[in-house]
Amino acid sequence: MNEEDEAFNDIERQAKQRKESVKAAISKEKPMNNPPAFPAPAGVSHITEQGMTLRDYFAAKAMLRTSVGSSYEQLAKTAYEIADAMLKARGA
């Protein structure tokens, strides 16, 4: 293995450690309030399914303005990261 490969592996290892520490910090937070995006009006009892959640709605909106050059999976991941930040910012 040459120096370039070792440096790349070291950077990859550090990124993985940072990602794991962020995941651990997030898991210690209180669960996110994720209400329905379009709740049924008060007093309407015949609607039993609430449809998409606010997180899904935010992610869909974020996808319209997000351009990720890699893959659909990365685009979806980025959109949900933005949605999570939006929910957190609104105090949900």
What's the layout of helices and strands?
Elements: H1 3-28, H2 54-65, H3 72-89
Give your account of this protein's structure.
This protein has 92 residues and is mainly α. The protein has helices at residues 3-28, 54-65, 72-89. It is elongated. The mean pLDDT is 79.
Q: Write down how many β-strands occur, each being a DSSP E stretch of 2 or more residues.
A: 0
**Largest β-sheet summary:** none
State the end-to-end CA separation. 48 Å
Using the CA coordinates, give the radius of gyration.
19 Å
pLDDT averaged over residues: 79
Low-confidence stretches: none
Strand content: under 5%
Oligomer: single chain
Helix content, binned percent: 55-70%
**Shape assignment:** elongated
Structural category is mainly alpha
Number of continuous helical runs: 3
Could you spell the SSE succession in H and E letters?
A: HHH
Put the structure in a nutshell.
It contains three helices and no strands.
Quick tags:
92 residues; 0% strand; elongated
